[in-house]
Every structure is written in C-alpha cells, then in structure tokens.
Amino acid sequence: MQRSKGVNIKNLTKIYQTHGGKSEFKAVDNISLDIKAGEFVTLLGPSGCGKTTTLRMIAGFEIPSEGDIYIGGDKVDNLTPDKRDTAMVFQSYALFPHLNIYDNISYGLKLKKITKAQLDEKVKNIIELVGLKGMEVRYPNQLSGGQQQRVALARALVMEPGVLLFDEPLSNLDAKLRVYMRAEIRKIQKKVGITAVYVTHDQSEAMSLSDRIIIMNKGIVEQVGTPKEIYYTPATEFVADFIGTANFLDGEILGIKGEIATVLVSGGVLELPYRGTKKVKDTCKIVLRPEAIEMGEKGLLKGEIVSSTFMGAYQDYVIRVGDNEIKCEDFNPQVKTVYSEGDKIFINFKKENAHII
Amino acid sequence: MTINKRRMKNQHKIDDMKKIWKDPVLVTTILFLIVTLAIFILYPLYSVLKVSFINEGNFSLKAYVQILKDIDFRQTLGNTLLLGVTVGILSTVIGFLFAYADAYIKSHFKKLFKVVSILPIISPPFVLALSAIMLFGQFGLITRQLLGINNANIYGFKGIVMVQTMTFFPVAYLLLIGLLKKIDPALEEAARSMGASRWVTFKTVTLPLLLPGIANAFLLTFIEVVADFSNPMVIGGNFSTLATKIYMQAIGNYDMAGGAAIAVVLLSLSILLFALEKFWIEKKSYVTVTGKASRERDVITEKHIVWPIDIACLLITIFVLSFYVLVPIGGIFKVMGVDYTLTLAHFKYVFNLGLEPLKDTTLLSIYATPITGILGMIIAFLIVRKRFVGRSFIEFTSLLAMAVPGTVLGLGYISAYNTKPLLLTGTGLIIVIAFIVRSLPVGVRSGVAALQQIDPAIEEAAQDLGANSTKVFVSVTLPLIKTAFFSGLVYTFVRSMTAVSAVIFLITPKYKLLTASILSQVDNGRFGVASAFSTVLILIVYVAIAIMYFGLNKMGVSKSDDNIL
C-alpha cells in the first residue's frame, strides 16, 4: 500500500567553513549510495562522520556542494524540503509545542488537498498504529519521552512519504525504552513497507534495525553491507573496531591460492579464507572477535595471560599473542578451567571466524 | 591550493544562496527589507552628514568650524558629558541597590520595588520633569509650601540629574537583576565555606563577577542620557545638552548646517559608546560564561542587612511614586502652588482643544504598532535562522537604529525627505515611519532572544511536512515567539504615544502630537493643562497595555517577569 521510493546518491560532497571562514572542512566527501525502495538502511558512524549531514541533504535542509540526489528516480536537487517526498523524525522530536497531539500529527496533511474526512481517518489510523489512542488533545509537554517519540514517528508516517528519514530518534530515551522503541520502529516500518534511512551512532541499534548498514567515517563510506557482512567481514580496521569488539593480530601473507591465504602470525602459519586484493609479502591484520577465541593446552597460536577477570557470565582475559594483546571472553567459567595471570596457554579459533584485512 | 581554497569558500556561499533563491517569497522579503532599511535608516543619516559638510554646494568644514568657535557649543558638549557621567553613576548605584534587594534580600516590598522600577519605562518621558517643577520649582509644593523657600530654582543641572536618574535607573536595574539572578549561589557558598564573611564574599566574589555588568549598566544609562531630549527640554532651563541644542540650532535658529554638525557630534558619541558597550563590555561578562544558576539562592534574612537596604529602597520608591501621584493632582487644581481651587477646566481644555492631537497621536501609534511588531519578528527570524548575502547589513542597520539618538534621526528625516521623489515631510506617513524605526530595534532584539531559545528543528519539521517558508513563519515561528511579538507591540505603542525627540521635527499643523502639545503647555507655564494632558496620555497607555495583556492571557501566553518590557 505504501508508495515507497528508492534513494540514489551520486558523488555527494558537502563543504563547511570553519574558524570564521578561514578553513574548509569536508563533512561529506564524494559519496555514492543506492538505497532500494522499501529497504531499511542505517547510516552508522562516530559523531562528525557526516551521517547527519548526508541525511539532511536527502531531506533538503542542506544544499550539496557537489553531487546529485535522486528520490524515486527523480532528481531533487532543486526542491526545497517542503517539496520533497520525504518525512523526517528528528532527534529532538521537534514537536510543535503550541499544538496538541492531533494537530501535530495532522499538520502536514492539512497542507495537502484532502478532505476533512480523509484527514481525520488517516490521523486516527496512525494514532492507533503507534498506540497513542486517547492522547489526541494533550500537548507535547504532557507526554513522556517515549510517547513524544511516537508522536514524532506518527507525524512523519501519516504523510505516507516515499522515504522516511530518522535522525538519531532514540538517543533521548533511556536504555530500556530505546530497545523497545527500536523494535516498534522496525515492526511499523515492515508493516507499512516504507523506505527508511536511519542515522545513528549506536551499533546495536543499527544491527537490530537494518537491512543494510552504511558505515561512515570522516565524510567517506567505509563499508556498505548487511549487519552480518559488516560484523563478520569488516572491510577496514575502522569498521572492525567500530562494530563490536575486535582483536587484531599482525601478520604477513606468505601465499595466496584461490580463496585461501597462507599467513604468518606471531610464529605460527595459518591457512585462512581470503577474498581480498592483498598480494604475497603484504602485511595484514587478522580480525578475531573475543567470543570466537578458545583457550587450551595446545592450539593454533601461543599466548600468555596478561589479566584474568571474573565478570559473572564470562571470564574476561587479556592474552599476549606475539606483539599483540587480545581480549577473550570465556562464557560460563564455573564449569571451565580458569587461567590466571602469567599462565602460558594456546589459543584456538575456527578458521571461518578469522577475517583478513 | 589557494585558488582551490577560495573556490571552496565561494562554493559554500553559493550553497547557502542556492537555498534562498529557491524561495521567491524569501528573496522578495529580503530585498524589501534591505531597500527599506537603507532608505529610512541609512539615508537620513547620510543626509545629516551631507548637510553638515556642504556649504553653498561645495564641500566645506564651515559648519564645524563655526560650532567649535561657539563657546556655547563647547559648554553644551561639556554639559552633556558631565550629565552622562553623573546620571550614569547615580542610576547604576540605585539600579544596583534595587537589583540587590530583589535578588539577594528577603525584602518585604519586592513587588512595590518592581512596580517603581517599571513605571518610568512605560510613562511619557517628561512626566517626571513636569512633577519635579511642581514639587521643587519656584511655586513648588515642597520648596514653597513645605519649606517656605521663595526663590527655589529647579531648572538646570540638578533638576536634570534628578529626573534623569529617576527615568534611567530602571535600565540599570533590569540589566543587573538579570545578571545577579544568573550568578550561581554555589560560588558565594564556596567563599563562605572557606571562611569569608558576607561582606568579604560580596567584595571578593559577587562584585568582581558583576563588574562588567556594572560597567555595562553605566554605559547604557550614559547612552540614554546623552540621547535624552525631553527632560533637558522641560527642566533644563539654560543648561543645554547636545540633543536639545540640535533642535534649537536647526529649528530655533534656522541653521540646518550647524544643527547637522552638532547632530554628527552627538551621533559619533552615541555610536562610540554603543560600540564600547557592544564589543568590549559584553565580551567581558563572566556571568554569562558560567551560565544558569544551579539552584535558588537562599536570600539574606539578617535584620542588619535587610533593614538598611529596605529602607533606602523604600525612600526612593516613595520619592518616585510621589512624582507620579502629582501628575493627576496637578490637573485638578487651578494653579499648583498658587491657587488650590478644584477645577475641571484643565481636563475640559484637553477634551475640547486637545482632542485633535489626542486623536492624531493615538491613530498614528496604532498604525505603527502592528507594522513594527511583524517587521521586527521577520527581521529577527531572518537574522537568526537564515544565511544570505545582506544578512549582516540587515542586522547591522537595525542595530544601528538603536544607537541613533532621536533628535539626530528627526533632523535626518526633515533634511532627507523634503525633496522629490521622497517628499514625505508634513505627511502622517513620515511620523508613522519614525515611530516604527524608533521601536524596531527593541522588537528585533526580543525576537532574536526568543528565537534563540527555540530548537530550529521545530521549524525544519514543519517545512519537511510540506509547509513553505511563509507557512512555517505564520503557523510555527510566530506562535512560538508570540510573547516577544506582543511585548514588541506594547513597547511600540507606548514608545510611539510618548515619543518626543524624533517626531518633534516632523509635526505640522496637520498632524499635532500629544507630547508636543504638552511641551508647549509647559513652555507657557500652564502646568495644569500639561498635567491633565499627561494624565490622559498615561491613561491611554495603561489601558492599551491592559488590553494587550488581556488579549495575551486569552491566547494562553503567560506574562513572565522577563517580558514585562
């Protein structure tokens, strides 16, 4: 039922002036993206990475210095925000404090040429959808944070936009509510089948919500992929480090045969899956997630326990392997051998858990 | 590299302009504002400069040489500066006393103090001077009746100092109360816990924190004093100031060039003081750096501190109030100080012969009020929310209007608009425009302050939902800043009804203004009629304020203390 639209971004650049115009800063540096209709895509990155600027350029609040934006195949560069088929959910919610909930939600519809009856029906449906029934005549300051969030969502949804934009919408909620609301958002987005572009710096939000994640850093796109691709096969050290906890082992590529690379890592030689562009003799890093590592009397690589901390659910180890220190989480320590500081051990991991970058 | 950098910088400006150009309403508004501000603020000032430098068609310094030779002018300049310093100091001290009593002391009369410090702001500027003559003049109630002095002379320096201090100490009070309330009590508590007594804390913490604010208050009152026209006009006697001298020279002696030259001197002085206040003192404020107080201050309750301050403030309050009470009383006696027969003759005179100025003033003020209100909010909106070429021009010009003394503006208007194509002198329009220009800066300033409190995302949300820039302004921005908008309306109306300095140049037999009528009655020594006129004027102003506040309450706007003009 939703006439959702795709978004195409071509060579988008945004330059800001800093220090009173003395120097320039590329907030967004020549990025290109294709977002399919009905897809939930998250722009993820640390603050200042250009994700919000990109979102605001899609909405039309910022004018690109270079590049083009297409919504539903149409170039929108010359359209002001009110003419674009987008609706945004703001970080601060930006509810109109002088209007009640009903008037807040119906604000945009009143500007469209539809009958009073149609308007009323749409608003009622959306209020029901986001679970705000009975709140219509209240004012924003009489609602809780979670309820305000729902109004903001409803106000955008009721416009039935081609693309729904979210600018860190959950960052003002407490942790529990945040988890609940992100499930709600995903549920509603799937139900109405709308294209959503979601900006956040919270990786768990991105992982749980998205069909695809776009990782940005310093104005450029580091990687685009599904949550699994991003987690298991990060394209760069930045991505590996930004998503979850990553251990890095320095290595050197000794040989590549098909999709298997032979790698020298702190005295050991390992054969690991590899599909990248590195050549023989290149240095590389092996990414290992803490939960993928096991310890034992024998194994792939030698190590020494640097610290061992009981965390309840798991024993938290820091292990020196060659020149690198890695973190390891050994779950359910009650029934396992617990090593202590100074113990010499071996580490083990499944080959598919190791990713070369 | 440098070329690339320059290209990038231009690129940025182009990005912003692209955004503006897509909005024809916005472009039209901006162009209209730039042209209007240039014609009605910059051009008159240019015109004053031109008149002062041109003699018989050629560039000449003759006017300046002449006024510099004039002992009278040098005396006037000295007078003005002396007055500025004296009243500046007195107003700051009294303003501080009231602010301290309000913020720090458990005072019994806080409400009363507040009323007294607001009264002079919403009253006609010469009411106090009028009362001063009736109280302390040759036939003064106090001087003649109470003390039996027969040759009392209130005219001159001491009279001006008295009424100007009473008129302008609220300026200092309002500024200092804002700062005092922002000082974090924790700072003073920290000093106390380290062993400082109350007095030492006051001397070493409170006062140093406030020092830039005190300097600011002094400068602001200085600026007001220098620009003040009506008080020296009424009670100055032979003691002339730059503001009155401009009028005397240009209108009294028909010496436009000389008047213009004095106007340039006054304008330079005002702008200098203003720039000092804006760019030097404002930056030094510590209080605005530390920001909001973490919690309410525990007010001082010790009797030996409360009583002296309370009594001092109370005495001043009674003094000021007695001046106001005297105005209507002066209207119902035949001749104050001489013949205390009750009479309605003065009021009858006002409602027979004075009806025309009453009507003209009220009507012209009513025209000016909504225009100023809306214009002020639009300018504030553009300054705060939009980036465009000409933005700094609009900001600067509307700020400049605040620094221009009324007499300078008035002189500018008669010299700028007495030829085609802008032949406006003698029309009601030019008076309305003068009203607007005089009140606009305050409207803009309160609009800017209000807008800065509001998350820009709220307006973006409206635009995102399909509202164009006009619709956003009308349906979201204006409702959110309506308190500032309405206080702008009230301010404009009051200011226009009581305006003297700028419009005294512009009145014609066709358009008579109430304030000018009162001045001429005072000139002729007819204090009874002047009192009756003033009473009616004050009543109109208060009724208007009451109506507007009533309307405001109806619309659900709370009248917070900060917005009480």
Give a quick precis of the structure:
Chain A has 357 residues and is α+β, with helices and mostly antiparallel strands. Helices cover 23% and strands 36% of the residues of chain A. Chain A has a six-stranded mixed beta sheet with strand order 6-7-8-3-9-10, with helices on both faces.
Keyphrases for this structure?
heterodimer; A: 357 residues; alpha+beta; six-stranded mixed sheet; five-stranded antiparallel sheet; 8 helices; elongated; B: 565 residues; mainly alpha; MetI-like fold; 2 domains; two-stranded antiparallel ribbon; 25 helices; 75% helix; 2% strand
Strand neighbour order, sheet with most strands of chain A: 6-7-8-3-9-10
- Determine the most extensive contact between two protein chains: A-B, 38 and 28 residues
In whole angstroms, how far apart are the ends of chain A? 43 Å
Sequence stretches where pLDDT stays below 50 over 5 or more residues of chain A: none
**Percent helix among the residues of chain B?**
over 70%
Q: What can be said about the biggest beta sheet of chain A?
A: 6 strands, mixed
Specify the CATH class of the largest domain in chain B: Mainly Alpha
Estimate what percentage of residues of chain B fall within beta strands: under 5%
Please provide the ordered H/E string of secondary-structure elements of chain B: HHEEHHHHHHHHHHHHHEEHHHHHHHHHH
Biggest sheet of chain B, open or closed, and with what strands and sense?
A: 2 strands, antiparallel
Strand content of chain A: 35-45%
Helix content of chain A: 10-25%
Low-confidence stretches of chain B: 557-565
Query: What is the annotated CATH architecture of the largest domain in chain B?
Result: Orthogonal Bundle
End-to-end gap of chain B: 53 Å
The whole-number mean of residue pLDDT values of chain B reads 85
